Amino acid sequence: MRSNITMKDIADKVGVSSVTVSKALNDKEGVSDSLKLKIKKIAGEMGYRYNSAAKSIKEGLSYNIGVMIPQRFTGMNDSFYLRVYQQISLHLEHYGYFGILNVLSNEDEEQLSFPRVYNENKVDGIIILGQVSKEYINIVQTMNLPKLFLDFYDEHAEIDSIIQDNFYGAYELTNYLIAMGHREIAYVGNIYSTSSIQDRFLGYYKSLLEHGLAFQERLLLNDRDERGRYIEIKLPEKMPTAFVCNCDQVAYNVYERLTELGYQIPSDCSVVGFDNDIYATLVSPHLTTVEVDIDQMARTAVKFIMEKIANPSRRNGRVLVQGKIIYRDSVQRLEASN
Amino acid sequence: MRSNITMKDIADKVGVSSVTVSKALNDKEGVSDSLKLKIKKIAGEMGYRYNSAAKSIKEGLSYNIGVMIPQRFTGMNDSFYLRVYQQISLHLEHYGYFGILNVLSNEDEEQLSFPRVYNENKVDGIIILGQVSKEYINIVQTMNLPKLFLDFYDEHAEIDSIIQDNFYGAYELTNYLIAMGHREIAYVGNIYSTSSIQDRFLGYYKSLLEHGLAFQERLLLNDRDERGRYIEIKLPEKMPTAFVCNCDQVAYNVYERLTELGYQIPSDCSVVGFDNDIYATLVSPHLTTVEVDIDQMARTAVKFIMEKIANPSRRNGRVLVQGKIIYRDSVQRLEASN
DNA sequence: CTGAAAGCGCTTACAG
DNA sequence: CTGAAAGCGCTTACAG
């Protein structure tokens, strides 16, 4: 137990009641300005610090938001989720809130235990980052608390979620290639592997459709096996002029493959990626790609969860956050030829 | 205000007092086993959740630890600090604690404001991740709370700190090269640039000394200018057989330079790095390097801060956490020739 | 084995 | 403009 200075201590020193101290420190009505000033001064001198637990107990609000990351995503080198969490905690500041990180252990997920932040009433809302099992989603839904999925959605669940717009990003990127004069455009990725690879493929597909370009099976190139391990990419006989890669790391692989075979980028082939991660600038020339707007995702998540705390019946549904294209030097404008 | 179920509600339902409910739920003495069971059952059915704010106010403990990261380290792609934070929050679990991330804004650091987690009494201790200004260190020292520096120390400050053992890591790595038969070993790094580059250099130096190898000025190769931008590495006339690079990214650069000049790794030159980050496996052959033991750092930090909460006068001083060498294929055993 | 009383630090009516 | 009283949810003595 810390020996803390309380409002009572200040009150005794100043010679007023603790009610008056409370009003003064909170800039409330009903205290003369001179007394207010005096109280604040003494409080400062005594090193007074507000006890937020007392406030919590009165208001029933903890002023904390729990951010849950399943343990599975914890060992990854790519710390996308951690960067999102960081942004979330930044945005929570504006609301006087703090973020509590709660790694959801594999056991808790399997045994369908509530997260500890929930059981102990530590938070006023929970943001879940990354995919949890179907069964666990059901548990999440029974939690009597505002909640939100981030970067993940479930088709059946009614929980609000915020996800990146994979479809639109790939669509825009392909539009760009077409605007640059490309007509023979390959897509690189195993479209049965993850939903984001699939959604990105569909964006690519839509762009082709809209521009009256037929989708050619031979230009859909596989990049990984069923277990997600990268395989050697087989290039088609008749080479396309551009490659839409499902992520930057695969673009990196495509660079290597093309270079091996003596193709120059972008003069022989243009290449675009997705994610704007470290691989995008590891290659030469640097890669044109799509960047997820982490800040926007975090900002939206915080805004939504705050709205739900104020009004628990509020629904936002599934919200897409658009990324933005980062233009670099991996795409070449083709001569007008058709 | 949430309409929560309280112990009183359970007490009313069961027909006992809330004192008895409290004892039963906390497995304390003085309640018959049958009653205890009944209370727990009803509590479960009613969806009771413990109110930790009430506990906090009684005990004067928040059961939260604040982790502060200066905003400057926030934009970095490498999320070393975030990974440390994640491990910290994992280890806090064992103690029934949670981690609150508090990004220290540049303004707060300049204006020497206390962190918000401190002002609002949100935490029982603070771990500071990454370097803050000298002036801010003084502010930190006036905080009436257990505190700890992680991955950073100040020569004058009396605050406990946990840092990675750069010196020993480079020492071990150089020992390994010597054991593999190398005698002409270069160090790559601007030793006036950062303290970690310097400490690593000194570990390399000590290893040479211990093995009776003279340090040769010509084998100290610069890798960056005063502003920290990488420069082209000038190789010495007479080539060494091995390169100790101050970090993996520089090792990556060394690979490129050597390959350009037609040297094969490791048959012509061996190369080792430091950090075991993404660059270590981006090169071929993969790099032998030193990995910081993030888990050990986090574990130690949590242990220390818990000890200080229990006993505020406790001191641990400056503690070094050793990394471990990750052996890969960038080092070649040399024929016994001397 | 069970519970009435007091208190943790603060705030919200309400009375003066 | 100021303060006594009550209460937020829980726990800690202490009495029975």
Key features of this structure:
homodimer, 338 residues, alpha/beta, 434 Repressor (Amino-terminal Domain), Rossmann fold, 3 domains, six-stranded parallel β-sheet, four-stranded parallel β-sheet, 13 helices, 12 strands, elongated, DNA-binding
Give a written overview of the molecule.
The structure is a homodimer of 338-residue chains. Chain A is built from 13 helices and twelve strands. With 338 residues, chain A is an alpha/beta fold. The first copy, chain A, folds into three domains: 1-46, lambda repressor-like DNA-binding domains (434 Repressor (Amino-terminal Domain), Orthogonal Bundle); 64-159, 3-Layer(aba) Sandwich (Rossmann fold), CATH 3.40.50.2300; 166-291, Rossmann fold, CATH 3.40.50. In chain A, the strands form three sheets. A six-stranded parallel β-sheet of chain A has the order 2-1-3-4-5-11. In chain A, α1 (7-14) crosses α2. The N and C termini of chain A lie far apart (79 Å). The A-B interface holds A 1-2, 4, 47, 49-54, 56-57, 59-62, 64, 69, 74, 77, 79, 82-83, 85-86, 89-90, 93, 98-103, 116-122, 144, 278, 282 and B 1-2, 4, 47, 49-54, 56-57, 59-62, 64, 69, 74, 77, 79, 82-83, 85-86, 89-90, 93, 98-103, 116-122, 144, 278, 282. β2 (98-104) of chain A pairs antiparallel with β2 of chain B. Chain A binds a DNA duplex (16 and 16 nucleotides) through α2 and α4. Chains A, B: InterPro entries: HTH_LacI (IPR000843), LacI/GalR-like_sensor (IPR046335), Lambda_DNA-bd_dom_sf (IPR010982), Peripla_BP_I (IPR028082).
